[in-house]
Amino acid sequence: MRPNEFEGKNEEDAVAKACRSLNLKREELQIEVLEPGSSGIFGLVGGRKAKIKAVPIVKETIPEEEPAAPEVAIAVEVPEKPVAELAKAEKTSVEPAVETEDDDGIGVAKEALENILALIPMEGTEVTAAHVDGTITLNIDGDKSGLLIGRKGKTLDALQFIVNKIVNKSLEKRTRVLVDSENYRQRRKEFLVEMAMRMGDKAKKIKKPVATNLLNPHDRRIVHLALKDDEELGTKGSGEGILKKVVIIPKNRHSSKSGRSGKRA
């Protein structure tokens, strides 16, 4: 790379690197954008870094034949230490903004989902984002038709899978992203808990194991947790692959105190 050229994941990042490298403020640099950069397809492939050229702005100086003004003499006598500290403070003020964005991840997740929705396209939808118990939660408002939810939430799960891939590729640490629409996740949880309780009662009544339909890992965990405090029942996963059934097994009273059956996902 040529002197005074800097690269970053976007123009702001490249400018920040130039400021740190040259120990100058943004207003003290003349910035020329050589390549604007691109996030690629969904942020996964084809991304390009932004490239800029940063040249210090040359300030006008007093001609040598003019007598030095008193304030110039005072400025010369100022110790160099405050100037160095000022440069260090400027460097510090730029770096946290970049680190906060990387550590946070909300902006990356929200933008990724919005880009996907723009390709569908979905009119009248809006994405809101928040941190909930260490998880980035994205909620899609305006999907009254349920198109983005799909049958048993499969479309929503697919969107969530893609956004998680994008976010975890962009950030250095692993981050979990939950995508919801029209409060579907909560409604699904209530349905699964009610179903688990109903099937548990049936298993105890007929004294035979009963099995759910094929469920994804998240839904299976809800069923396991719904029945974990029932000493008359045990639960275990059954099947191969991501989608498995949950088998609800009635226990006889003599073995109820020996512990529950394994709850394998």
Characterise this structure:
With 265 residues, the chain is of the alpha+beta class. The protein has three domains: 5-102, no CATH class; 106-182, K homology (KH) domain (GMP Synthetase, Chain A, domain 3, 2-Layer Sandwich), CATH 3.30.300.20; 186-258, Ribosomal Protein S8, Chain: A, domain 1 (2-Layer Sandwich). Helix content is 42%, strand content 19%. It contains seven helices and nine strands; from the N terminus they run βαββαααββαβαβαββ. The protein has helices spanning 11-22, 70-77, 80-104, 106-119, 154-170, 184-206, 217-227; strands at 5-8, 29-35, 50-56, 126-132, 135-141, 177-181, 210-211, 233-238, 245-250. The strands form three sheets. A three-stranded antiparallel β-sheet has the order 1-3-2. A hairpin with a 2-residue loop joins strand 4 (126-132) and strand 5. Helix 1 (11-22) runs antiparallel to helix 3. The protein is elongated and about 90 Å long.
Which SSEs are present, and which pair or pack?
Layout: E1 5-8, H1 11-22, E2 29-35, E3 50-56, H2 70-77, H3 80-104, H4 106-119, E4 126-132, E5 135-141, H5 154-170, E6 177-181, H6 184-206, E7 210-211, H7 217-227, E8 233-238, E9 245-250
Parallel strand pairs: 5-6
Antiparallel strand pairs: 1-3, 2-3, 4-5, 7-9, 8-9
* Low-pLDDT segments, ≥5 res: 60-84, 86-102, 254-261
Count all strands and give the number: 9
Structural class: alpha+beta
Q: What is the distance, rounded to the nearest whole angstrom, between the alpha carbons of the first and last residues?
A: 51 Å
Query: Average pLDDT, to the nearest integer?
Result: 77
Oligomer: single chain
Strand percentage lies at 15-25%
Enumerate how many helices there are, as a single number.
Answer: 7
Biggest β-sheet: count, sense, barrel?
Answer: 3 strands, antiparallel
Q: What order do the SSEs take from the amino end to the carboxyl end, as H and E?
A: EHEEHHHEEHEHEHEE
General form:
elongated
Strand order of the largest sheet: 1-3-2
Domain module tally: 3
Radius of gyration over alpha carbons? 29 Å
Specify the helix fraction band: 40-55%
